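Blinded run. Sample ID left blank on purpose so nobody reads anything into the name before looking at the predicted structure. Input follows.
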Amino acid sequence: MDVLVANSRFSTVHHTLTFHFCSAQCRDRFLEIPALYTGAQRTANILPIPKRRNLRIATGSPDALDDACRRIQTLMGVTSVSAKGRRLRVDYDLRQVSLHQIEAEAQGAGITFSGGLHALQRSLWRFFEHNELENAAHAGTRTCCSRPPTPH
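Blinded prediction complete.
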């Protein structure tokens, strides 16, 4: 996205370069994994990474749940969010938003997610998402069995 520097309210410095962003969400996303945005990538390789998560809710009033749905829906990259009973289902593009950001919005609305095994599952999802983004950031730059190293 093109951002006018004069209008930018959100920026950060990465490797002595100043990056400007359209929103706090985009800046935070960049700070999570700058290599995804600063590495050499072919435009054809930049495809959505769709995710669907069913989050179990431990506590939160119906009003808090409605507020959480509204807040999550405003995040760039969220394609749908719905609440049914004590579950929150979110579909999103991992390239634009992470589970961590979605959880933060829900918690800001007063929602507490279930602990125990569900907390462990969410931790694993966050871990796998981070790895998936790291792999996407370096796609095509590493050698593998089907792609021999290129001479420099």
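Unblinding after everyone has recorded impressions. The mean pLDDT is 85.
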